[in-house]
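BUG: 3D viewer hangs when loading the predicted structure for this chain

Environment: internal workstation, default settings.
Expected: structure renders.
Actual: progress bar stalls at 90%.

Input used:
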Amino acid sequence: MQTPRQIFLQNIAQTTDHPMAIEIEKAEGIYLYDNTGKDYIDLVSGVSVSNLGHRHPRVVEAIRDQLDRHMHLLVYGELVQYPQVRFAQLLLDQLPGHFDNVYFVNSGSEANEGALKLAKRYTGRTEIIGCRHAYHGSTHGVMSLMGDERFRNPFRPLLPDVRYIDFNNEEDLQQITQRTACVMVEPIQAEAGIVQPQDDYLGKLRQRCNETGTLLIFDEVQTGFGRTGSLFGMNKYNVYPDVFTIAKAMGGGMPIGAFVASKEVMDAFKQAPGLGHITTFGGHPVSAAAAHAALQVLLDEGLVDKASEKGQRYINGLSHPLIKNIRGTGLFIAVELEDQTTAEKVMQTFPKHGLITDLFIFKPNAFRIAPPLTISNEEIDESIRRIIKALNELGK
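C-alpha cells produced before the viewer hung:
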C-alpha cells in the first residue's frame, strides 16, 4: 500500500520539483504539527491567510454554527444569505463612504479578474497597466499583469493592450492616459520583497488616475486585514482607490475573496448585457460566516494595532552576519540574504529547526516573516532563536 507521502508526490499535481512534503496532521495557533508530533512555527501564515492563527475558536464556532443552518444554496447573487449580508455590513462599516458595494468570489485571483473586467466594462476602455515585479494571481487574465516576463512568456498569447510601469517611478505615471481603463497595483509590493511606496507615490498615482479618468485598483489580497499594521494598506497611506480586492486572511482560514467598489461602478456588470461576472460558489455561506467572525476578532482583540510593535520586535531581534537587510511594515517582513543560493540553503535548513516560511517570487534571496497576528512576544522570541540557530548552522 502506498504511503500518504507517495500518493502526494505521485498523484497530486506539484508546482515545483522539490516540495517540502512535510506530513501535517494538526495545526493550532502559530504551530503546525507533523505526523511525529514535531512542531513548526508558521512564519508564512499560509501566505498571509492565517492572520488569526490556525483554528481560532471564534472562527471555528462560526463555521459550525453555519453548518447547522445551510451550506451552498444557489448561484451567487440571487438569494439573500445572512452570512454574506452580515459580513458585507461589518466590512463596509470599516471603509470610506464611497465603498458601498461588495462582490463576493472564491479567491484573490478571481477577485482581481473581476476587478479588471469591471474596469473595462465601466470605462469602455481596453488598456490595462500593471507594475513590474507585481503578483496578482495565476489565472490566465491576471497572469497578463504578472510582473516578470519569465512567468508570462510560456503562456502567451495573454491579454492584449497591457502596459507595465515601475513601482515608485513617478515619471512612468505619464504612461497612464485617457486610453487606460485601470491601473492595478499592490499598495505594498509583496513578492518583490515587501517594497513600500516612497515620496507619496500612491498619492501621485491617485492624482494621475483622476486626471485621465482611469480607475485605480488596489490589490489588497496580501496586505489586507491587519498584516501591515493597518486594516488595509490603503489606510496606512491614506490613499483610496476606486476598486480594491481582498482574499487570503479574509476568511480566517476558509476560501473566500471579494472586490469592493461603489454601487455606481459595480452596477456596470448589470448592463449591456447583464451577468457581467458570474460565480457559483463566490461568498459561500460557510466561508462568509468565517469571514465575519475573523474580522470581528481583528477588531475586538486589537490585533491590527499590535502588528507594528510585533514586527519591530523581529527587526530589532534579528541580527546575523548572513542577514544583509531587513525591511517591512507590521508583520510583513522580508529578510534579505547575500544571494539566492544562500537563501535556498536556509530554506532547506529551516524545517529541521521547526520553521515554515518561503522565498519571495521576485526576490529569491529573501525569506518571508509573516506569522499570525496572534503571535505572542514569547513566541516571537522563540522563532528568532530558531532562525538564528538555523543561520548559525548554515554559516559553519
